[in-house]
Model the fold of this input.
Amino acid sequence: MAETTLPTARSVTALREQVRAWRAQGLSVGLVPTMGALHDGHLSLVRLALSRCDRAVATIFVNPRQFGPREDFAAYPRSEAEDAAKLATVGAHLLFAPPPGEMYPPGHATTVAVGGTLTQGLCAPLRPGHFEGVATIVCKLLLQSLPDRAWFGEKDWQQLQVIRRMALDLDVPVAIEGAPTVREPDGLAMSSRNAYLGAAERRIAGRLPAILRDAAGRLAAGAAAAPVLAEARQALLAAGFTSVDYVALCDGATLQALPATAPGARLFAAAHLGRTRLIDNIAATG
Ligand code: AMP
Done:
């Protein structure tokens, strides 16, 4: 991979110095938090940040607090040099890639927990502590950099709603922006975890968005949710998914389950393929 000239900050102090210098020049700042192993979905967020702000900061931090004890923290792909080169190519201005001790110094004891309907269903009961880990690290990243705007992908729809709620409830002075899901040619949502998939699994994975689209079409035509969701679950298992965590129709803002489509309804799924857990969601409105 070619040498990159992307400046990299390792400390909160260095990050703040750079943002302060930009602010002194009257420049606006956009933030794109990631866990690295960057793909075109991540890069689309950086491009959006560059389209709305004078300077774009990407962050890479594999946040241990959002992984459960039996999840893939150790195996999560790490490729900072390649990531930095990709970020430089799309025109990002700064990479913030702190070591764990910078984000969680000894004695760190504060957790941000978003309550209410957003963390009652979907991934929340299956991944205890996950959204607290996400809300805590994103809150820290927003306060450390204090950008004008920060971008998050709709691919992680529940995460996006949790982050919006956290920023609103804590009066964090940053506009939270959602960005559409970037997909592979067969429709599979891009994800760093797709790298775990073997060739046969990768072919099966492409069935997930197709099955969701089919179900969303039936819901949009007026079918009741229960039979459509049950059939989508069966279709995923028949396609070769190892297990299905959920297929759910929910209001996109409250994430509460719906008996049939309604304005703002979304269809959500999470399923396992071997050791890989995939999630996706699409609009399901008439
Ligand atoms: P991650 O590195 O997986 O934590 O993702 C960092 C950010 O990129 C999050 O806001 C994700 O929602 C977003 N993201 C991940 N995959 C995609 C995708 N396929 N399309 C758009 N955004 C994405």
Remarks:
- The first helix runs from residue 12 to 24.
- The chain has a mean pLDDT of 96.
